[in-house]
Design goal:
The chain is an alpha/beta fold. It is built from 12 helices and 8 strands. The protein starts with a helix and ends with a helix. The relative contact order is 0.13. The structure holds flavin-adenine dinucleotide (FAD).
Length: 286
């Protein structure tokens, strides 16, 4: 099933993300977690793509297992260190496995990224390639608090317009912890005429160590209300987990209440977190 059909339906959607293993030794553990999450019957599940593409086969394999479990997969694909040939091979592999949805990404430019080896500069270049290949529903990333590489929010929105015009049919947001930031961003998108559906990405913070990682990968503002929870419960793992799930649940209920009908959970291969959130909003999802 195409993601666009799922997220534009009247019923609210709830989806989960998993990431593939870095080595084949961990494949079984990740597969087990992914299938446990699939058994919760989410609207769809996304499978991330390792930076540099070294684990591209794992992404395709995990996505295939999710599909075989009866859940629609969304396979991520990055392009910044890829050749056109490598991308086409991955597209062929995904098609052979029956995967219909791709999240087209640039990938981070790291100090060791060799740009001379890349046939692509932006995610929109990849989006065009996938659209020309044909047969996939294509999504892209967006950043309610602006991508760190963007000089300002105007140019950031302009890039999203280019991405939508290159064939991107939906956006998934970077995590955010204050819903007003998303509502403001949605308004700016619409004002610029970008009207592709947006899926809100929510990260349940279930341990204090995650905060450090969040700050290193995104510009997400951490509201006082949220920081107080981490200050008070960060050193009590079970309490932090419960509080992080409750905070994410509150964000999700507010999003649905304000007409954002598609929510994606950065579930970090944790079936118990995915399950707790789904149970907390079971009546809303009916
Ligand atoms: P782009 O859309 O190319 O944007 C990157 C920068 O270039 C932005 O500043 C943008 O404004 C600018 N830009 C874009 N197009 C143009 C243009 N035509 N002209 C001028 N400027 C332009 N990383 C992984 O490695 N694997 C994953 O699986 C993965 N999944 C992700 C899922 C989500 C939902 C999100 C939000 C991020 C994910 N990332 C992943 C991280 C992502 O790869 C990085 O944030 C990366 O730095 C940017 O990727 P992008 O696709 O948004 O790039």
């Amino acid at each position: 099933m195409k993601i666009t059909d799922i997220i534009t339906a009247e019923k609210p959607s709830l989806s989960f993300e998993v990431f593939p293993p870095k080595t084949s030794d961990n494949f079984d553990t990740v597969e087990k977690a992914a299938l446990e999450i699939a058994d919760l019957k989410p609207s769809f599940m996304s499978v991330t793509y390792g930076a540099g593409g070294g684990t591209s086969k794992f992404t395709a394999d995990i996505a295939e297992h999710i599909l075989n479990r009866g859940v629609t997969p969304l396979a991520h694909l990055t392009c910044i260190s890829s050749t056109g040939e490598a991308v086409k091979n991955q597209l062929k592999l995904l098609k052979e496995k029956g995967i219909e949805n791709i999240l087209a990404l640039r990938g981070d430019i790291l100090p060791d990224t060799d740009l001379s080896k890349s046939d692509y500069r932006y995610a929109s270049d990849l989006t065009k390639e996938i659209a020309d290949f044909g047969g996939f529903c294509i999504g892209g990333a967006c950043y309610p608090e602006c991508h760190p590489d963007s000089p300002d929010s105007e140019s950031d929105i302009e890039s999203l317009k280019i991405k939508a015009e290159s064939g991107c049919q939906f956006f998934t947001t970077q995590m955010f912890f204050d819903n007003n930031i998303l509502y403001n961003f949605m308004y700016r998108l619409l004002r610029r005429g970008v009207d592709v559906p947006v899926i809100a990405g929510i990260m349940p913070v279930t341990n204090a160590a995650q905060i450090k990682r969040i700050c290193s990968i995104s510009k997400s503002a951490l509201p006082q209300r949220f920081l107080r929870i981490v200050d008070r419960y960060g050193d009590k793992p079970e309490v932090m987990k419960q509080a992080g799930i409750a905070y994410a649940t509150e964000q999700i209920i507010d999003l649905y209440a304000n007409g954002i009908n598609a929510v994606h959970i950065y579930s970090m291969n944790k079936p118990e977190v995915a399950s707790a959130i789904k149970n907390n909003i079971s009546e809303i999802l009916k």
